[in-house]
Design brief:
52 residues; mainly alpha; transmembrane helix; membrane; transmembrane
Length: 52
């Protein structure tokens, strides 16, 4: 195998893996957003307040 053949293949595999990871992350976020029992982020305006 030549480098001119393997480098584009590896680049396409990397791009595909990134796209699949982004799609899974988006699905997880949407699922958490729809779940009323999921706690809000501490950084959110309506999130839990820090303890004093």
């Amino acid at each position: 195998m030549d480098a001119a053949f393997i480098v584009p293949i590896l680049a396409l595999i990397t791009i595909l893996a990134g796209i699949l990871f982004a799609m899974k992350s988006q699905r997880d976020v949407e699922k958490a957003r729809q779940d009323p029992n999921d706690p809000n982020s501490a950084l959110a305006a309506d999130g839990p307040k820090p303890r004093s």
